[in-house]
C-alpha cells in the first residue's frame, strides 16, 4: 500500500497531463507558456530550495557519487558501443539508457517513500548528473563523429535553468548565506507548485510522442529500467553503503529516461527511437519501480 501511495500521485498526474495533451484541452500557445513558467521558474526554484538547506555533509562523499556514476557510465559506454557497431555511426542511445528523469519522477517518488530528508542524496547526485553524462556524450560525438567538440552546444545544455537552480542552491548552502524569511516564504510557495505542474507538463509532452517498436527500443528501455538499477544495487551491497542512501541511488537509477536526452538526438532516426524510449520507459516504470521499491524495503 505504501508503494501505491507513492506511485499513484506521480503517475496519476502524468496520466492526467497526457489526457489533457491528447484531448488538446489547453491551446498550444497556452501549453507552451505554462511549460516555460514551470521549467524556467518553478522547477529551478524547487531545486534551489531543496539544495540551499540540505545537509550536504551527509551526502557529499566520493563513494556515493562513484556508486551511482560508475554504473551509469558503464551502461553509457556499453550501449553506445553496441549501437555504434549496429548503426556504423555515433548516436545518443547510451545517454538514453543511462540518463534518469531524477527531477520529475525521482524527487516526488523519494519524498513520498523515504521522506524529505532523504533527498539530500538525490541532490548530491543531481549536482553532477547532467555535467558528467552530457559532457561524456559531447566528447563521444566529437571524437567519433564530427571530429570537433561543440563547446557552445555543451555549455548551452549545461547552462539550463534547472542546473542554474541547483548551483545557486549549492552556493547558498556552502556560503551559509541567510535568506530573509519573507523571501524564503516566496521561494516555498513557488516550489510547492513546481512538481504538480511539471508532472502535468511531462504527461502533456508524452502525448506528442509515438512508439516506434524496434529491437533498439526494447534494449534501451530494459537497460534503463533494469540493468542500471541492478548495477547500482550490486555495487552498493559490495561497498556496504548506508541503507537509506543505497535505496535512494537504486530508485534514481530505476527512474525512466529524462526528456533532456532529446537535445542530443542525431537526426530523425535517433529522434524517433529516443522519443519512443522516453515514452515507453515512463509507462513501464509504473510497473518496474514498485518492484525496486519492494526489493529495497527493509
UniProtKB/TrEMBL annotation:
Record bears the keyword Transport: yes
InterPro entries assigned to the protein according to its UniProt record, in alphabetical order: Mem_transp_PIN-like, Na+/solute_symporter_sf
Cellular compartment(s): Cell membrane
Coiled-coil annotated residue ranges, if any: none
Spans traversing the lipid bilayer: 6-26, 33-51, 63-83, 120-143, 155-177, 183-205, 217-238, 244-265, 277-295
Kinase keyword on record: no
Main location group: membrane
Keywords of this entry: Cell membrane, Membrane, Transmembrane, Transmembrane helix, Transport
Membrane topology qualifier: Multi-pass membrane protein
Highest taxon of the lineage: Bacteria
Family: Belongs to the auxin efflux carrier (TC 2.A.69) family.
Name of protein: AEC family transporter
Organism: Halopseudomonas formosensis
Lineage: Bacteria, Pseudomonadati, Pseudomonadota, Gammaproteobacteria, Pseudomonadales
Amino acid at each position: 500500500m505504501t508503494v501505491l501511495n507513492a506511485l499513484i500521485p506521480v503517475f496519476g498526474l502524468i496520466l492526467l497531463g497526457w489526457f489533457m495533451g491528447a484531448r488538446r484541452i489547453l491551446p498550444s500557445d497556452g501549453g507552451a507558456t505554462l511549460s516555460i513558467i514551470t521549467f524556467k521558474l518553478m522547477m529551478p526554484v524547487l531545486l534551489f530550495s531543496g539544495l540551499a538547506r540540505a545537509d550536504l555533509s551527509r551526502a557529499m562523499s566520493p563513494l556515493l557519487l562513484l556508486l551511482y556514476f560508475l554504473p551509469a557510465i558503464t551502461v553509457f559506454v556499453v550501449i553506445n558501443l553496441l549501437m555504434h557497431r549496429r548503426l556504423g555511426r555515433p548516436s545518443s542511445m547510451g545517454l538514453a539508457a543511462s540518463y534518469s528523469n531524477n527531477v520529475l519522477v525521482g524527487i516526488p517518488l523519494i519524498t513520498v517513500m523515504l521522506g524529505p530528508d532523504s533527498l539530500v542524496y538525490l541532490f548530491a547526485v543531481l549536482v553532477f548528473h547532467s555535467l558528467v553524462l552530457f559532457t561524456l556524450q559531447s566528447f563521444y560525438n566529437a571524437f567519433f563523429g564530427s571530429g570537433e567538440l561543440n563547446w557552445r552546444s555543451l555549455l548551452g545544455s549545461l547552462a539550463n535553468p534547472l542546473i542554474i537552480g541547483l548551483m545557486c542552491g549549492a552556493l547558498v548552502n556552502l556560503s551559509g548565506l541567510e535568506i530573509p524569511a519573507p523571501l524564503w516564504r516566496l521561494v516555498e510557495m513557488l516550489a510547492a507548485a513546481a512538481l504538480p505542474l511539471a508532472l502535468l507538463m511531462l504527461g502533456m509532452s508524452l502525448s506528442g510522442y509515438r512508439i516506434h517498436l524496434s529491437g533498439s527500443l526494447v534494449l534501451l528501455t530494459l537497460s534503463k529500467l533494469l540493468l542500471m538499477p541492478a548495477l547500482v544495487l550490486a555495487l552498493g551491497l559490495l561497498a556496504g553503503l548506508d541503507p537509506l542512501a543505497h535505496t535512494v541511488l537504486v530508485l534514481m537509477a530505476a527512474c525512466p529516461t529524462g526528456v533532456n536526452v532529446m537535445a542530443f538526438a542525431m537526426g530523425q532516426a535517433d529522434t524517433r527511437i529516443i522519443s519512443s524510449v522516453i515514452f515507453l520507459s515512463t509507462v513501464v516504470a509504473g510497473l518496474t519501480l514498485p518492484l525496486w521499491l519492494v526489493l529495497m524495503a527493509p
